[in-house]
Amino acid sequence: MSTNYLSIARDGLWNNNIVFSQSLALCPTLAVTGTATNGLGMGMATTVVMIFTGLVVALFRGIISPEVRIPVFVLIIATIVTLVDMGMNAWTHDLHKVLGLFIPLIVTNCAILGRAESYASKHATLPAVVDGLMMGLGFTLALVMLGATRELLGSGTLFANAELLLGQRLAFMEVTLIPDYRGFLIAILPPGGFLLLGFLLAGKRMLDKQLEARKNLSEPAGVTAPEAI
Amino acid sequence: MDAPLVSGPHAHGAVSVSRTMVLVMLALLPATLFGVYLYGWPALNLLLITVLSALVAEGTSLRLAGKPVRPYLLDGSAALTGWLLAMTLPPWAPWWIGAAGSFFAIVVGKQVFGGLGQNLFNPAMVARVALLIAFPVEMTTFITPQPLFSSNAPGFLQGLAISLGSGVQIDMVSSASTLGHVKTELTRGISVHNALAPVYDLLTGFIGYMPGSMGETSALLILAGGIFLLFKRVITWHIPVSMIASLMLLATLFHGINPERYIGPLVHLLSGATLLGAFFIATDLVTSPVTAKGQLLFGAGCGALVFIIRSWAAYPEGMAFAVMLMNALTPLIDHYVRPRVYGRDRKGEPLVYEGKPEPPP
Hints:
The structure holds 2 protein chains of 2 kinds.
Chain A: H1 5-15, H2 26-31, H3 36-59, H4 69-91, H5 93-99, H6 110-118, H7 125-155, E1 157-158, H8 162-166, E2 175-176, H9 190-218
Helix pairs in contact in A: 1-7, 3-4, 3-7, 4-5, 4-6
Chain B: H1 17-39, H2 41-65, H3 69-74, H4 77-87, H5 95-108, H6 123-134, H7 156-163, H8 178-187, H9 192-196, H10 202-207, H11 219-231, H12 238-257, H13 265-270, H14 274-281, H15 292-312, H16 319-336
Helix pairs in contact in B: 1-2, 1-4, 1-11, 2-4, 2-5, 2-7, 4-5, 4-6, 5-6, 6-16, 11-14, 12-14, 12-15, 15-16
């Protein structure tokens, strides 16, 4: 059985995006996206966890009995999250201080358990790892988009304090787009997270509708039989 | 229309959305004109910008949602929202306060819920609260009255400069509103009486020649507009009366207990947004309960919350918060307070008449 990696990538990044389509993992999505940098850090940490969860779960999928699979998955995820937590504390200590509580809470991120249950436990190792990577990247994309929107509206900057995450060499990523900006403070406060997430979800749906309409236009009627897809 | 003429008890009240909106605007007109007179060209600029941005936001939202633009845009509801919002803004606020506020009111407060009649919260108050949280400095910089064409008042060009945010030093003419002043003085340990005595007397408060939001200061003109609305049956008496009564009752009680700490009832009535809120904002047909009893409850809740926020919370004025909190309770009130169905008792069971056998179950 050949695996279509392209469709895995498309699903993870856009069609079946964790935040924008599945509406999972909203707690970290709303909690840490005060700036684009925080979103990027959280997204990358989650991506690492998802890759390794996919790897381990797919490797052991033959010997995990269905009755106890959920506790086993949780245990695997908790182990990997602990490793990531310790790693971040060692290597990106300043960002770890900012994201603090939310890193251990990746354990409870339902999207990771969801992918372990619905994909990794049913597929071979390599596809499971790719799926973890793509889902994680899609999650990162969503977090960075939300974080960037909130940061831009709230303080007029992008990737503020990028050096916390990526070291001094990438500090240039921090840009002040609107100098002397008064700051629409509510965008950074919790209500802004909910509001802007809503707008992003609506925007994605509008885009999807337009893409579909264009696709239907370009394809002559009659060819789009279900068998053809 | 070719519909056949049918005789019968058909009556049409000729009440439409746009008629209601126009009547409310008429009622707002005296207080608005007074506000423009009192605070000069910048106030007029702010009003125009706020109303125009509301219309632009409404048109854009309708277009995006694929709804007919013209009928909804011309019914006046968006213009009224912008107008009401402008009434509650500091008169010399820069243009982007009005524009951002209108956008927030129409898009977040109204259109995301599905447009006219679907919104849970009063759009103008949603915007005011968002602005207050986002821009605390601009939203609390009030100015002393600078009547149009008086010697100190800014001219047209200078007014334009103020509205565009690059005018005179606004600190030169700024002044605290009555409620804000009392709040500040209280934190410094000065009693209400001593704080109010040099800056406030009730007659000024009644006429409205004092610092405050653009359309809130003149109790007299707002009251006149409110009575006009009552007379035209756009609103009923329940919400304003119960709201003012509960606020007055609490104020009298606490002022009686400790006059050094709590503002008196008449000051409560004539300052801030009390009257504008009671007659124009809390009575919003969409976001208040439908039954008379529910409206009494709603109004009493608003009044109590206004008193609580003014007396003990961090903000000097709490009308917007109070109305929004009670808006959130409106579905609950409507759920529990229902009119009795004809022929049934309050629990919905059929009425039993004496001397007649009970209806078969």
